[in-house]
Amino acid sequence: MKMIQKQLEDIQSWLEQHAPQIAKQSLNPAANSVEIEGFEHQISRTLPEDFKALYRWHNGMNEEENLGSLFYGMAFLSLATIENRRLELADLVNDLFVLEHAVPQINPSNAYHRDWIQFAHDGGRTGLYLDLAPTALGVSGQVIFIDHDYNVGILVANSIDDLLQQFCQDLQADLYQLNEEALEDENEFLETDPTIDIINWHMSERWARPDFE
User: Fold this and answer.
1) With bands split at pLDDT 50, 70 and 90, how would you rate the model's confidence at 1?
2) Most C-beta atoms within 10 A of its C-beta, which of 40, 94, 109, 130?
3) What is the DSSP letter of 210?
4) Is the pLDDT of residue 95 over 90?
5) Is 123 helix (H, G, I), strand (E, B) or coil?
6) How crowded is residue 74: how many other Cβ atoms within 10 Å of its Cβ?
7) How far is CA 32 from CA 55, 168, 198, 199, in A?
8) Nearest to 157 by CA among 52, 80, 50
9) Rg of the chain, C-alpha, whole Å
């Protein structure tokens, strides 16, 4: 876990230097052990250690003083928000909406799988999920991107640790910048370079899958 702590420290340092409003206003305080254990009890699953380490860093973000974003320009959800969203979508779980296009590591049988824990959201119908129910080709704890508009599932990282490592590398490579329109409204909102924009995956150099269109 030493590596993940270093990654989180590097992310915090980058944000404080380049996006101080996100660092100081958007990101919530750390989740404590009671909150994390309570969340595990609510979902009836044991969370991977790297996911818990992420939430011990910050328990998601809020929009009270700054409309910010984090991974791939998405909102980083608090544990309470994750649970509220799960409750809102509970009726869809049994409808078995099938993903039309998914990489082999993702089980496509239910686009609203209860063992997919959404922790980042774009404000529309896409997001990042912790996948606790992969196929035999995947690994529990992998990070997946689900696009409900296109019924698409893409593997983003093999773990939260790998997601954070890639995020650090992308920050250092200047593949994130502050959205100019948000700045005009005195908000700091991270947006990605088009080459790594997973929300618009079909036009992204990193994520494009012509066979999914």
Assistant:
1) low
2) 130
3) G
4) no
5) coil
6) 23
7) 8, 24, 31, 31
8) 50
9) 16
Residue with tokens 């992308």: 170
Mean pLDDT, residues 55-77: 98
Q: How many residues does the chain have?
A: 213
Instruction: Tell me the sheet residues that pair with 118.
Output: 129
3-class secondary-structure state, position 191: strand
Helices first, then strands: H and E counts in the chain = 8, 8
Q: Give the phi and the psi of residue 131 in degrees, each rounded to 5.
A: -100, 110
Domains, the chain, in order of start with CATH, read: 2-212 (3.40.1580.10)
Strand (E) or helix (H) holding 7: helix 2-18
Q: Which residue has the tokens 């502050």?
A: 178
Q: Which amino acid is at 151?
A: N
Query: Could you tell me if 172 and 155 are in contact, meaning their C-beta atoms sit under 8 angstroms apart?
Result: no
pTM of the model: 0.95
Q: Which one, of 16, 15, 124, lies nearest residue 70 by Cα?
A: 15
